[in-house]
Amino acid sequence: MTESATEHAPQRATRRDFVVAFLCGGLVAGMVGLSFAAVPLYSWFCRTTGFGGTTQVAKSLPTYTTDRIVTVRFDSNVATGLPWRFEPERRTVDVKLGEVVTVYYAVTNDSARVTAGQAGYNVSPSTVGIYFEKINCFCFTEQTMQPGEKRDMAVVFYVDPKLARDSEQDGVKLITLSYTFYPTRASDQAKAESTAPVKTGPI
Fold first, then answer.
1. 180: left (phi over 0), alpha (psi -120 to 50) or beta
2. Cα(101)–Cα(158) distance, rounded to whole angstroms?
């Protein structure tokens, strides 16, 4: 090997190491970025396709109704750690496709402290999610309840008349709308504040 080649070999090795390090860093950064994007992308996919029974957010009111009637059943649940009672005013309702319906849920905070929660939701059969349109729903925002507070929360919805055109849904007569309230960080913070020792000044 000539003297010139020997002198340039360390430079080429350094340049190669830099390129490899840059590519590895870019790969790691890309993987981290994808991990953060996965949740909103999955949420968008579910909302768009109704995957997993995810309901739709109505952009407009229905323009017509059909004579086909389906029964909508309302299911209510509360996750561990949230001291709430949560139940619908009625368990089922018969609706025409395209008919706008309002149903209320009664929610009570059974604890002696401020608590907060937010509802997760889906419908079954899961293939009907793309046709279940919500106009208004308490699940869109975090709900904060005062000690012992009772509140009526409304969900306004309709089942898209396009369901009647989907031959795969011909056998659908019952749709279950299921909610589960989960405690949120605001609830955990309120709990921590209520159990924190009271600071007193010198006597």
1. beta
2. 6
- Asked if 183 and 82 touch (Cβ cutoff 8 Å), the reply is yes
Q: How is residue 38 written in tokens? A: 């996965």
| 43 burial via Cβ count (<10 Å: 0-12, 13-18, 19+) | exposed
User: Is the pTM higher than 0.85?
Assistant: no
- 150 DSSP β-pair partners: 108
pLDDT of residue 11: 58
CA distance 108 to 130: 31
The mean pLDDT value for 140-159 works out to 96
pLDDT of residue 185: 77
Q: How many CA atoms lie within 13 A of 57 on its CB side?
A: 10
E strand spans, the chain: 56-57, 69-78, 84-88, 92-96, 101-109, 115-124, 132-137, 143-145, 150-159, 174-183
Q: Which residue has the higher pLDDT, 188 or 178?
A: 178
Nearest-angstrom CA–CA distance, 121 and 118: 10
- What percentage of the chain carries pLDDT values higher than 70? 65
**Residue 186 to residue 188: CA distance in whole angstroms:** 5
Of 133, 115, 126, the C-alpha closest to 190 is 115
Q: Nearest Cα to 177, choosing from 160, 157, 201?
A: 157
